Amino acid sequence: MKRGSHVLVEEKSATNAGKTAYLVEKLRESVIFIPLKDYRFSNKPLEGHTWFMSSLYDNQTKGEAHFQEFPSKSSKGRLLCLKGLDEHDGSRNYYALAWPEALPINAILQEGLTFVCNNHYDYGNLWHGLTAAIPFVSWSLGNQCENPQKWVLFHRGELRFGMGHWLSEVITANYGQEPEFLRFVDEEKLVCFEKAVVMRQNEGGMSRERRLEVFDLIRCKARNYCNVSLSKSSKPRIGMTLLMRTRPRSFKNESAVINIFKRECKRVEGCELKVSYSNSLTFCEQVELMRKTDVLVSPHGAQLTNLVLMDRNSSVMEFYPKGWLKLAGIGQFVYQWGANWSGMRHEGSWRDPVGETCQFLDSDRRCMSLYKNGRIGYNETYFSDWARSVLGSVRKMKDVVEHNIGNGLLDGCMC
């Protein structure tokens, strides 16, 4: 080839490189940030694709929680980028998609896997926080048990930087490390994620079979983490636990309630009764207590989330103050759902017909502010018959000690 040809090739190569650089620069500048919270959907946050990242649609794999993954085929290989510092208005926090070869100039690349969660409820509440974490555990279970390096938490598009201690311990047990929350330090400095999984509808879309698998894993990991022994000698034949509350939704006469269940437990060979308060127990003490519990007796409240740590087919007895059935909405049934999802038996509920008198009709929603934290009375005859029936069904089970079908064995977890 002549020297002139070399020059032409070099010039053409330089021209192509210049065009490529020009296009990359244009791609950098073309990244458009959209508010995380889309007020057009604010009246129906749980319908369709929700108000969080409303321009994008979820992956709806059969039986799995709805999720988004970046980069992916649906994102055309683009990465998720976030910016904003607002803890009060999700419309002032933003998201965008960008090609990895053309990230915006002021972007920081977060390496590894990041879990991004938008929760409509509270990360401090045991149940609400757990339902936000469940789909991430499920995703990991279906993806070679991959662990996140970071978490980004939103509540309705508003940034959050932590979760309740109980939930944090569950996450630590599952992933072998404490959850590390990404903090955005500059309103204009954006973060793009090498890999991100986004959940914005909690456990929505998960089949019951998948939920059972996930709760088996959570239970197993918690027991491993707390080094809870599974030896037969460490567990009574039938363990009944009264998990009490203090102040709101506590029993008015605890000693009377305790005596009723103590009497009925004594009538059943091998039954042992324990009375505990979850707020006085460490996480691992709660795990150990639930390992020894076949019948959980407790007022409605966050402490009942511990039911997921019992062996499968264990029983739950739940109690409510006056007024909840008419006024509390569907949220009052979360522990019935939780029992079903995790393989427990919800044995029904007792609702106190007696309580404070509301100045309005009992069906008036304004009364709920009075009834919400009401205290709970007792009915000795009903409680005795109910306890006798539940204990009788537990006693009839072929194998009370090992009825968790092998899903809680130490060192035998699925991940």
Automatic annotation (TrEMBL):
<dbReference type="GO" id="GO:0016763">
    <property type="term" value="F:pentosyltransferase activity"/>
</dbReference>
<dbReference type="Pfam" id="PF04577">
    <property type="entry name" value="Glyco_transf_61"/>
</dbReference>
<keyword id="KW-0472">Membrane</keyword>
<dbReference type="InterPro" id="IPR049625">
    <property type="entry name" value="Glyco_transf_61_cat"/>
</dbReference>
<keyword id="KW-0812">Transmembrane</keyword>
<keyword id="KW-0328">Glycosyltransferase</keyword>
<keyword id="KW-1133">Transmembrane helix</keyword>
<protein>
    <recommendedName>
        <fullName>Glycosyltransferase 61 catalytic domain-containing protein</fullName>
    </recommendedName>
</protein>
<dbReference type="GO" id="GO:0000139">
    <property type="term" value="C:Golgi membrane"/>
</dbReference>
<feature type="domain" description="Glycosyltransferase 61 catalytic">
    <location>
        <begin position="163"/>
        <end position="317"/>
    </location>
</feature>
<dbReference type="InterPro" id="IPR007657">
    <property type="entry name" value="Glycosyltransferase_61"/>
</dbReference>
<keyword id="KW-0325">Glycoprotein</keyword>
<keyword id="KW-0808">Transferase</keyword>
